TrEMBL record:
Residues spanning the signal sequence: 1-20
Entry-linked PROSITE patterns: ALPHA_CA_2 (PS51144)
Occurrences of domain Alpha-carbonic anhydrase (ranges): 47-289
Species for this entry: Guillardia theta (strain CCMP2712) (Cryptophyte)
GO function terms (MF aspect): carbonate dehydratase activity; zinc ion binding
SMART domains the record matches: Carb_anhydrase (SM01057)
Name by which UniProt lists this protein: carbonic anhydrase
InterPro entries linked to this entry: Alpha_CA_prokaryot-like, CA_dom, CA_dom_sf, Carbonic_anhydrase_a-class
EC number of this enzyme: 4.2.1.1
Pfam families given in the database record: Carb_anhydrase
Family (UniProt): Belongs to the alpha-carbonic anhydrase family.
Length: 292
C-alpha cells in the first residue's frame, strides 16, 4: 500500500520534474529569441569597409546595396586634375572669385579661451577634426563646415601624380547640398602654427581617445585662399562609401605645409587611405585661371 502510494507520487512527480528541468534548461538556451535582434543591430551598424584587398575600393559596391553607387556612379571622386587646358579640362570663365571674404570663421568672434578648440578623432578610416565654427559662401549659397579629415597619399592627382597628402573640408548647405574643399599638402621644414597642436596630439589609432586642441582656421585660410584663390571645380562624389554624388568639389591650387615626419605620422596612423582616381566620363573640370 505504501509502495503503491510512493509509486503514484513518483508517476505524478517525474513528468513534472522532467517538464521543470526542460523548462529550466530552455531559458538560458533560448538563443533563438535573443538572436532575432542580432541581424537588426548588425544592419544598423555601418558595413565594414576599408582600403585592404578584401574590403577595399574594388569591393565597396558589392558590400551592400547601400554602396552600389561606388560601382555604378558616373560622377565619382577623386579624379586626375590638370594644370593645362585640354579635352574636358577648361578655363571656367564663369567661376566665381574666392577670397577670404567668402569665409567666416565664427570662432574668432567668440572671445574666450575655448574659442578655437576643436575635437580630433581617429574613426578607423581617417583622422577627423570637428568643431571648427566655419562657413563658406559660394555663388550666394552658404555652406557650413562639418569636419575636415586627412588622406595619405592624396586622393586627387595633379597631372597624373599623387601628392603627399590631402585634406578634405566637408561642407553642407541648408538645403543639404554638399561641397568639399580639397587642399593638397606639401612638405616643409616646419609645421605652420595652426597645425602644431593637432599634429602633436592627434589619436594614432581608433582605440585612442579624442584629442582637444587649439586650431586657428582663419590662419589656414590665409595660407590657401588669400586675396584671390586659384582652384579647380567639378561635380563629383564622396570618396568613401556610400560614394554619394551631387558633391561640388573645389580643389585649391595653393597647398598647405607639413613636415615630412608628421605626414609620415598621419600615414602610419591611418594607413594608405586614398581611393583610386575615377573616370571623368561626361564631366568637364573647370580651372579658375591659368597658370594654376
Ligand atoms: C545566438 O547568438 C549567440 C551569440 O552570438 C551565439 O553564441 C549562439 O550560437 C546563437 N544561437 C543561435 C541559435 O543562433
Ligand atoms: C576677380 O578677381 C580678378 C583678379 O583679381 C579681378 O580682376 C576681377 O575683377 C574679380 N572679379 C570680381 C567679380 O570680383
Ligand atoms: C586666429 O588668427 C587670426 C589671424 O591671425 C586672429 O586674428 C584671430 O584672433 C585668431 N583667432 C583666435 C581665436 O585666436
Amino acid at each position: 500500500m505504501l509502495l503503491g502510494f510512493l509509486l503514484l507520487i513518483f508517476l505524478i512527480a517525474f513528468p513534472a520534474l522532467v517538464v521543470a528541468v526542460v523548462a529550466f534548461t530552455r531559458i538560458p538556451g533560448d538563443d533563438c529569441a535573443l538572436n532575432v535582434t542580432t541581424p537588426v543591430t548588425q544592419t544598423a551598424h555601418a558595413i565594414h569597409w576599408d582600403y585592404s584587398p578584401e574590403h577595399g575600393p574594388e569591393h565597396w559596391a558589392s558590400l551592400t546595396p547601400d554602396y552600389a553607387t561606388c560601382g555604378s556612379g558616373k560622377l565619382q571622386s577623386p579624379i586626375n586634375l590638370r594644370t593645362s587646358v585640354g579635352p574636358k579640362y577648361e578655363l571656367g570663365r564663369t567661376l566665381k572669385n574666392i577670397s577670404m571674404n567668402n569665409f567666416q570663421d565664427v570662432s574668432t568672434l567668440v572671445k574666450n579661451s575655448f574659442s578655437n578648440l576643436v575635437t580630433v578623432v581617429h574613426n578607423g578610416h581617417t583622422v577627423q577634426t570637428s568643431g571648427v565654427k566655419g562657413y563658406f559662401q559660394y555663388d550666394s549659397t552658404w555652406f557650413e563646415l562639418l569636419q575636415f579629415h586627412f588622406h595619405t597619399p592624396s586622393e586627387h592627382q595633379l597631372d597624373d601624380n599623387l601628392q603627399q597628402a590631402e585634406i578634405h573640408f566637408v561642407h553642407k548647405s541648408q538645403s543639404n547640398n554638399y561641397l568639399v574643399i580639397g587642399v593638397f599638402v606639401e612638405t616643409a621644414d616646419e609645421n605652420p602654427e595652426y597645425f602644431k597642436e593637432l599634429l602633436a596630439d592627434f589619436p594614432k589609432s581608433e582605440e585612442e581617445a579624442a584629442a582637444i586642441v587649439h586650431f586657428n582656421y582663419t590662419q589656414l585660410l590665409q595660407d590657401v585662399v588669400g586675396d584671390n584663390a586659384n582652384y579647380w571645380m567639378y561635380s563629383g562624389s564622396f570618396t568613401t562609401p556610400n560614394c554619394q554624388e551631387g558633391v561640388t568639389w573645389i580643389v585649391m591650387n595653393k597647398k598647405v605645409k607639413m613636415t615630412a615626419k608628421d605626414i609620415g605620422a598621419l600615414r602610419n596612423a591611418m594607413g594608405k587611405n586614398n581611393r583610386p582616381i575615377q573616370p571623368l566620363n561626361e564631366r568637364t573640370v573647370h580651372m579658375k585661371s591659368l597658370p594654376i
